[in-house]
Fold this protein.
Amino acid sequence: MSKQDTLNLIEKDRKQLHPVYHPKSHIDPLVIERGEGVWLYTSDGQKILDGMAGLWNVNVGYGNEELARAAYEQMKQLAFTSNFAGMTNLPSILLADKLASFAYEGLNTTFFASGGSEANDSAFKTARYYWKRKGKPGKYKVIARKGAYHGVTLAATFATGLEKYHTMFGPAIDGFVHISAPNPYRFDGKLEPNETIGHAAAGLLEAAILREGADTVAAFIAEPVMGVGGVIIPPDDYFPLIRNICDKYEILFIADEVITGFGRTGEWFALKHWGVKPDILSFAKGITSGYAQLGGIQLSDSIRETIESASESEAWMHGYTYSGHATACAVGLKNIEIMEREDFPSRAKILGKRLLDGLQTLKEFSFVGDVRGLGLVCGVEIVSNKEDRTPDPGMAMRIFKAAQAHGLRSRPLGNTLAFAPPLAITEDEVDEIVKRLGASMDGIKI
């Protein structure tokens, strides 16, 4: 396709409203024509190593024929039917059965949605429902973290702890409270002598519960590894302490594993790194490797029993047209089969260490303040001064653009460049990420 053809397509694309859109951010978009493995090919002939696996989600890589065949065969037989009460379909039954206790023991019940935002909205509604059924209707608040990203439905927007997502969509929904995140590089809370950051950050949850009143708090939600907030890896003592605090005050713990689920961090689900399990699990993205729109929540047996024992007047009146979508569930089943066969979580652990070790070598640059990661999700934080760790989002954007010119796609998140390539990546391709990013940094004049 010629350059002019691409320009014509971009002009037509102006009729489309893109996610998190501003005209300045969509002046010269990449028009992606096809993908293969970890590589994207544009309409004007560029070949780009996708260091972000689409949007953290194309775990098995692009162009997987098994997933395409699974979708095709299911569409021929039954593309879609309603999954509301009174009707179901084979793929949703089989996938729900596969997911029972797949992530965490005791989470045996699955509700399907179309993506992460819907999943988290479902989690919030279910938490409120649960406490109403338990005779505690005053427990409706959700505590989240500053810098967290939980989606862009109206409720998920205000659970998200990033102000730029709130500014033009207020007034805020009542009931969402935010505390500081356990960021080892720039924790903004107060540390007592000999206190760990994990302990101090967990203490902020307890303080918020006491301040709001435990009888008003329904749930705490957290990403095991914060994604959009800058790829924040928590200290090892943080989540065990969080679990204890939630138990102490009868608060449901919602784990938002939309990014971290299905092998991304080197475990099937990330809280396993710390031996912790949630009451509600939100999932999406990697369950189909992005080949079909699918997400959902898994619920503890206690929550399931509370829903099932309700009278008709207190039924769980929640659902989406595409809940349990037959084709999406068929793709999810095949995707998990592939990931199990190829042992992608182990690949993520091994190749993630290789990527992290490679990115660590870039700390020789004066503007690379911190490099962190867990499995195949890594962040490179850019600063203007290593001594006082002053964030430098402008430099991060310059590096992002330079890397894209070198055929490497990352994602600029403020002053952090995120990398989360397909789990199908090879050793040579991991090394290529480091090589291209290093060349991009080397070419920048300070």
User: Anything to note?
Assistant: DSSP finds 13 helices and 16 strands in the chain. The mean pLDDT is 96. The first strand starts at residue 32 and ends at 36.
